[in-house]
Design goal:
The chain is an alpha/beta fold. The chain has one domain: 3-Layer(aba) Sandwich (Rossmann fold). A six-stranded mixed β-sheet has the order 5-4-3-6-7-8. Strands 1-2-9 form a three-stranded antiparallel β-sheet. Bound molecules: zinc ion (ZN). Zinc ion binds next to helix 6.
Length: 189
């Protein structure tokens, strides 16, 4: 079994990846639902993903791991632990990404780590913020790359699973046409 196949198993087992007929928060319908927090609530799964991602980022020899809160907190910490380097995070303050709790690390090499990357917007914000202080952005990693290669990040994006899930507006959804019951993830009956 490959690392990606094992991860896919963990995503399903933890309920982080569901397959069926879903109404997403955007209002669009999809046959897939992904919520990485459900995977990362299990420390053993978080450690597996962190170690696997660390192996992909190790060749870039980062001095620190940097993540955007909240999505990047757990996986960023796990990657930093596996690489034995410090972990810093940025957070939004009145809509603006800031390095609120840490002094600027100076002219170090860093990697940005997130759970899921779709547009790469948050990674781009935190990476650019630290670069302004003379640090060097040497790589980016995520558990699931949903960008389909369309992200605007500098350099290569390293992920454990690259996947694009199709979405439809309710009127054009083939699953609605099949009469499959619609599920709103996160809601409890
Ligand atoms: Zn539908």
């Amino acid at each position: 079994m490959t690392e990606t196949e094992r991860l896919q198993e963990m995503l399903s087992e933890s309920g982080a990846h569901l397959q069926g007929h879903f109404c997403l928060t955007s209002g669009l319908h999809s046959a897939n639902y992904l919520q990485c927090a459900l995977l990362l609530r299990f420390p053993a799964f978080a450690a597996f993903a962190g170690e696997a991602l660390a192996r992909r980022l190790e060749p870039f020899r980062p001095d620190i791991v940097l993540s955007p809160a909240i999505g990047g907190l757990i996986i960023g910490h796990e990657v930093a632990r596996a690489l034995d380097v410090p972990f810093l995070f940025c957070e939004r303050q009145e809509g603006v990404m800031t390095l609120r709790r840490f002094p600027h690390p100076g002219p170090v090499s860093f990697v940005v780590v997130e759970d899921v990357i779709t547009t790469g917007g948050s990674s781009l914000e935190v990476g650019s913020l630290i670069e302004q202080g003379g640090a060097r952005w040497v790589g980016t990693g995520c558990i699931v790359d949903r960008s389909g290669g369309s992200h605007r990040l500098p350099g290569a994006l390293h992920s454990l699973w690259g996947v694009r899930f199709e979405t439809w507006s309710p009127g054009e959804c083939p699953l609605c046409a099949q009469g499959l019951p619609l599920v709103k993830p996160g809601s409890r009956v």
